[in-house]
Protein: PhaC PHA synthase
Organism: Cetobacterium somerae ATCC BAA-474
Amino acid sequence: MKKKLVTGLLGLSLASFGAESLELGLLSPTQLNGPSTSVKGVRLGLIYTENQNVEGLDVNIIANKKQNFKGLSIGSFYDRTEGNFEGAKLGWFFLPLTFNSVGGNMTGVQFGLINMVEHNTKGVQVGGANFTGTGTGVQFGFFNKANQIKGLQLGFVNMAENLQGLQIGLVNMADNSELFEVLPILNFNFKF
């Protein structure tokens, strides 16, 4: 009796969330709702989960893909957002052991072994290698590259075609540096 009551309450609470509130996936398309749906709530995935848009908490063990994302993403060794990403991406136990890829714009924080944003970044990228088109904020890693950066690049090797800010590292390269294009320790351009 007690077991039936708990099972019934669990089923009722999941049903009250609605189809968009919870996604459970093993290996896409083997998912509760399927790859063509959007999720507003919680998405939990084991091997590979794929959805249109995800808003809320996204926890995946191996890999995931979505069109747009807003919220907190935890885990996933491979995290792909085809469109825009707003929020935070953290690897397991906050270790940067992930490959994060954003096809559009990223606003927020990325922690990963490799972080890539194809268009604009507003926020912080922390990882082994960070790449962005146009960045406003901070890139912190062994290797940082931006077509244009407004802010700080802190790493062993920093590269920017258009620097508006500061580079601190072993090798700093900025095509528009106020001093030299390549400098050790410190490079800057504060002419906007």
About this structure: The longest strand covers residues 106-174. Residues 2-17 form the longest helix (16 residues). The two ends are 71 Å apart (CA to CA). Helices lie at 2-17.
